[in-house]
Every structure is written in C-alpha cells, then in structure tokens.
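Open question from group meeting: does this chain pack into something compact, or does most of it stay loose? Before anyone orders reagents, we agreed to write out a predicted structure and look at it together. Recording both the input and the output here so the notebook holds the full record.
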Amino acid sequence: MRRTCLGATRYKLSPSLSQLRQYARAPTKLPIKPPPPPKRRYKLNGDSYSFIRGPEDAMLERSLSKSISPDLQVRCTEFDAQGNVRVNSGQFKKTELCTKHGLLPRDLRKVDTGVHTIIPSILVRSNSILVNLLHIRALVKADLVLVFDVYGSTDSHTQSVFMYDLEGRLQQGSKGMGGLPYEFRALESILISVVTSLGEEMKVLKNMVEVLLAELEQDIHRDKLQSLLVYNKRLNTFLRKATLIRDHLDEFLEEDKDISAMYLTEKLDGVERPEDQHDEAELLLESYLKQTDEIVQVVETLVSDIDNTEGFINLILDAHRNNLMLFELRVTIATLAVGSGTLVAGLYGMNLKNFLEESQYGFFGVTGAAFIFTVIVLGVFRRKLRVMQKLTLNSSKASQRAMRG
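Structure tokens returned:
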C-alpha cells in the first residue's frame, strides 16, 4: 500500500498478510526441460521402424568418422641410394606416396601408423616391398627406404638402434655386404631388429619366470601366485606375437613368385629372374625364420614349465585340503566316541532308583563300560575311514589307468 502527497516524499509500507498469501499462491516457473532426443526412422524389408538416438550413437558416429576419414599425412624418415638420411621425420601426404611409388591405398594402409595392428605382413609389389613387423613399418625400393614413424616408438632405444644399423648397412654398399643388393640389405636390417627385439624381450621374461619358479619350489605364497599369473599372461601375449611372425615368414617362403619378385635392383636394370631362382632371398629369410622359431620354442617351454608348476601347486593344495578334511573327520569321530561314553553317564545321572546305587563296584563297572563303549565306537569309525581312503586311492588309480588305456 502506498500513500502519496503532491510535493511530498513517497513512502512504501510493508506488504500485508493477504498480499504475502497471494505471492505464495502464485505459480512458480519450472526450469525448461531439454527436448527429447530426435527419432530416426529406418526401413527394413518394407517395414518402418523408429529408433531414439542416444549418447552411444554419438560416440559410435565419432569413432566411425575417425576411421572413415583418417589423417591424410604420415611422418616418415627417408634414406637415399647411398644410405644417407634425406628427410628426417618429414610429413608426406598419402596420396603423393601412392602416386610416387605406385601403391594402392589398401597397400599403404598396411603400414599406416594410425592403424593399430598386430598381424605382421610382407607385401611385394612391382617396384617396392612393404614391411610391417613389430615396431617397424617400412617401404623398401631398389634405391630408397621409407621408415614410417610409429607412435610411441620414435624415441625408443630399439627404434634408434634400428635406424643406425639401417644407415650403416646401406652406406656400406653391395661389396661390403657380400654382394647383397640394396633392398636385401634394408630387409636384413629390418629382420635383425625384429629378431633382436624378440630375443631381448624373451630373455627378460625367461629370467623373471625362472627366478619366480625357483622361489615357488621353496615357498608357496599368495603374492608369488599372483606374480605367476601376471607372467603367464605376458608370456602368452609374447608367444602369440612371436608365433605370428614365425608363421608369416614360413608362409612367405612358400610363395616362390613373391620371393623372386623381391629382386628390385634387377627389375630396375631390366633383368628378369625366373620364379625358381631365388636362393639368395630364400636363405636370408630362412636364417631369421630359424631364429624366430628358436625363440618360439623357448617361450613354449617356459609356458609349459608354468603350466606344470601350476598343476604341481594344485596337487599340493589339494593334498593340504584333504589333510584338513581328514583331520576334521578324525575330530568328529573322536567327539562322537566321547559323546557315546557320556551317554552312559547321562543315563545314570537321572534321579531314578536302580540296583547299582548300593553296589560296591557299581561306579567302576559303569565307568569301565562307558570307556569300552567309547573305544569300540572310535575303532569302528576309524576303520570305516581307512576303508574310504583306500577306496578313493584305488578309484583314482583305476581312473588313471582307464585314461591311459
């Protein structure tokens, strides 16, 4: 309520109780709800279906967009015909690489650093060799080597050693490497780096597993069993990786056409080589195939040792569990026998008259009878327990014989 006078000051009074009630009854504005997700309609066999688009669809669309439209550039290190580094970690467009080196987009995808793959591959094309082995992805030609920078391995020790070794082998020339052409020197450097990396990782895993197995022979502890599980997973992962490389080299050696097409220098000079004349390349690949196979055999032996140790530990734990169960059964039998003896004492503890109350030898007779009854019950159940143990051993031996037969 407001009172106003002409030429006077205006005064505001506090609201009355009725006005406060009106304010309280006034409707409040609720927050605006977000619009529902849009519906999309799809047709399947002539029928129309509507689906609500959720957050999972948005994540799927983002991942698909990344896979459909990958990066158009790759980072490479280029070596020239004399083995010198022409470009160090330079940016190259994929389209220019395909056009310049006569490749298809699917060929370049095999060595694309943005695509994670564990499947090794050696692809032979008309004037180049594409290699994807472990941490190395390279394009080898008769007078050029392109090494693609794999994410996470640019600054690694293995990658640095490979770069220096490749540069040294290419600079030595054909005469300094026993007459090997340019492409075979590059390929041998790649295979050496791959086999060396596998061998070093195998040695580290072998030392750790052998130390752990030796400790488990002395003491079986929970932490050691957890470490054994971790090492077993690492060994299986490494075994899968090494087996893939060995199998790929073995399969590649069966392709005479691809092996004979690896002589890129002769192709550049216009010399045609028959498909059955590739002894030099075959010996090179077979040498590193044997080394890879040896690594696989060592790792398989380690995995077998771990499996045998796990089986032996399970046998020990089963034996301890059986001993605990037998001890519990013995305690139960002893409790039953003592309870049988106390049953006699309980019967005579009732407030009922009998002829033994006034007997001079009644106490000793009842006590002796209760003791004899306890010994009889204990002996009967212990004998049954022994019979059950013999049946268990005989049944296990019979089942083992049946499995062997």
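Observations to bring back to the group:
The domain at 69-318 is CATH 1.20.58.340 (Methane Monooxygenase Hydroxylase; Chain G, domain 1).
The longest strand covers residues 85-93.
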